[in-house]
């Protein structure tokens, strides 16, 4: 790969020359690279899974960026050489993560969740010892901007709390906490 600077001949040229070189522009720099050749190896199942995930992420990005408000949000997250589409694909490709579930005071559930982008919602289910759902609802963002808070009516002994975190693209992460 070579960066081209100040060359009048290649200033407006883009594409492949013969079967040897590809000329493209990235971050306002002209780049010449050897043309990639197709692999002779059959793709592994993991590669096929990643290709499918990328196809889904790309379709999400194309569809969601039609909304000007969300386009502006993703554009605000873009760095140099990136655009809203890149950020939307990145968001769709990575799932949120639940870092911690804790009980504070008597019946307050605090969920600490992490995502590089915005979380859409956090849902909490309270189950009894038999696994029957006693109550469920949405948590609300805490003042600190990191935690989400759910006020439960009653937390049963030997039950459990299930938390579901969803981001804008619809990726869901689930975690549970056993009550003693």
How would you describe what is shown here?
The chain has 180 residues and is an alpha+beta fold. The protein contains 3 helices and 12 strands, in the order ββββαααββββββββ. The protein has helices at residues 45-64, 68-77, 84-93, and strands at residues 2-4, 15-17, 21-26, 29-34, 97-104, 108-114, 119-127, 133-138, 140-141, 147-151, 160-167, 172-178. The strands form 3 sheets. A 4-stranded antiparallel sheet has the order 1-4-3-2, with no helix packed on it. The chain has a 4-stranded antiparallel sheet with strand order 5-6-10-9, with no helix packed on it. Strands 8-7-11-12 form a 4-stranded antiparallel sheet, with no helix packed on it. Strand 5 (97-104) and strand 6 form a beta hairpin. It is elongated and about 75 Å long. It starts with a strand and ends with a strand. The model has no long low-confidence stretch (mean pLDDT 88).
